[in-house]
Amino acid sequence: MKITDVVSHILMIPDVHEGDADSAQDNLVVEIHTDEGIVGIGESDTNPWGAKALIDSPSTHNMGMGLKDILVGQDPLNIEALWDLMYVRTMHFGRRGLGVSTIGALDMALWDLKGKALGQPCWMLLGGARQSSIPPYASLQPQGGELQTYTDSLVDWVQTAKDFGFKAVKLEVTLTGPYAHGGLDAPEEKTVDVVEAVRAAAGPDLMILVDVQYAFQNARQALRTLKHLEPLDLYFVETPLSIDDLDGYAYLHDNLDIRIAAGEWQTGRFEFIDLMDRGKVDVAQPDVGRVGGLTEARRVCHLAEDRGRIIVPHCWKTGIGIAASVHMAVNTSNCALVEFLPSELCHSIMRKELVTDELRMENGVIPAPTKPGLGIELNRAVLERLKVG
Question: How far is Cα 254 from Cα 248, in angstroms, rounded to an integer?
Answer without folding.
Answer: 10
